[in-house]
Amino acid sequence: MRAENMNCSFCKDRSIYNNETKYKTVKYCKNHFIKNFEKKVDNTIKKNSLIKNNEKIVCATSGGKDSLTVLYLSKKYIEENKLNSSIEAIVIDEGIPGYRDKTIEDVKKFCKKYEIKLKIASFKKAYGKELEEILAKRKKNLSKLNKNNEKNYKENSENYNKKQGSPCTTCGILRRDLLNKSCVEKYDKMITGHNMDDEVQTALMNIFFGKTDLIARMGPVTGISEVQGFVQRVKPLHMCAEKEVTIYAFLKGFRNEFTECPNAKLSFRAFIRDEINSLGNSREIKQNINRSILEILPKLKKTSKEKSTSKQILKKCISCSSPSALEQCKSCTIAEEIRAL
Ligand code: SF4
User: Is 264 in the pocket of ligand 1 (CB under 6 A)?
Assistant: First the structure.
């Protein structure tokens, strides 16, 4: 019986990763895997003009494999292409005990090693409370509602749970807002570490909730057009599978252990992620979904842009003046709710 060839498809070294498609299998040794991964990210940046000359860039960093990888590769891209652009990092401290304190230390070490300026913005400073306290206060709000209206207990409870969702619903709104407000004045662009798996999950979540307009805002360059008051977000890893990013970060020594926010498993995103991963050929399915989104994206963006111009959908939040679809943006509504308790 012939032994299976374990060599890299490009050299005689032992392969560490196989890229299997319906038609062929390409095997990569450590060096060729790194080379191929970096080339893929480089091509994504170039093809979509994600990093241009003379830009002040900030990278939203969490200390996880994705954000450290994208921060490292974006800095490398700027240096290798001799761009007159700068890159700094920002991390949001939500105050999640046993998780964020550790990842902040990791980000600090990483930024020191690669000489990257780091800014830390916290929920405590911005909203007066850490996440745990915010969630507890919002729950208390529900109890108050119930006390005042015993008869409607069930209805109130259901509405509130629908409104608040998992911890990620509240945290995500506040995180996005704080990232934007901390960066919009100072930077031209924000890089995020969203990978292909994240993109596919987001697309499916938006389809589940019938939010086509939100799919239009997806892609390597987010949004349908530049909006004053929002820092432009770009995603250099959007063509990279999560597994590839994990291997790259591990091979480069960025991360040796897997850390995930303890609240992540409670989110709807985690449910979608697990469902997709449970499919036999999930890798190919993810690639197909991602490709389909990219194919329909230009049309969706065009339609969404026409709709938003004709209806003047974006207003200014009455509290913070940020662009908002509502009279008051969601984060100011939450901040007001927390202050009132
Ligand atoms: Fe916040 Fe959820 Fe992310 Fe944890 S996983 S940092 S709770 S959005």
Answer: yes
Give the pLDDT score at 306: 80
Q: What is the mean pLDDT of residues 14-29?
A: 89
Nearest CA to ligand 1 atom 2: 168
pLDDT tens, 76-119?
Answer: 999 999 999 999 999 999 999 999 999 999 999 999 999 999 99
CA distances from 2 to 5, 6, 15 (A): 9, 12, 18
Write out the two tokens for 97.
């005990």
Q: Is the CB of 93 under 6 A from ligand 1?
A: no
Same domain for 149 and 83:
yes
Rounded to the nearest angstrom, the distance between the alpha carbon of 270 and the centre of ligand 1 is 11
Where in the sequence is the domain holding 18, given as residue range(s)? 1-41
Between the CA of 49 and the centroid of ligand 1 the distance, in Å, is 29
Residue 36 lies in a domain: yes
Half-sphere exposure for 63 (CA within 13 Å, toward CB): 21
Identify whether residues 53 and 188 lie together within a single domain: yes
- Whether residues 17 and 74 share a domain: the answer is no
Say whether 77 sits in a helix, a strand or coil: helix
**How far, in whole angstroms, is CA 117 from its chain's centroid?**
21
Total number of domains in the chain: 2
Would the CB of 104 count as within 6 Å of ligand 1? Answer: no
pLDDT tens across 169-180, in order? 899 999 999 999
Q: Is residue 338 part of a domain?
A: no
pLDDT digits (tens, 9 = 90+) for 228-273: 889 999 999 999 999 999 999 999 999 777 788 999 988 899 999 9
CB 90 within 8 A of CB 60: yes
Q: What is the CATH number of the domain that holds 255?
A: 3.40.50.620
- State the distance from the centre of ligand 1 to the C-alpha of 264, rounded, in angstroms: 6
- Shared domain check, 69 and 28: no
Q: Give the tokens for residue 311.
A: 């209806």
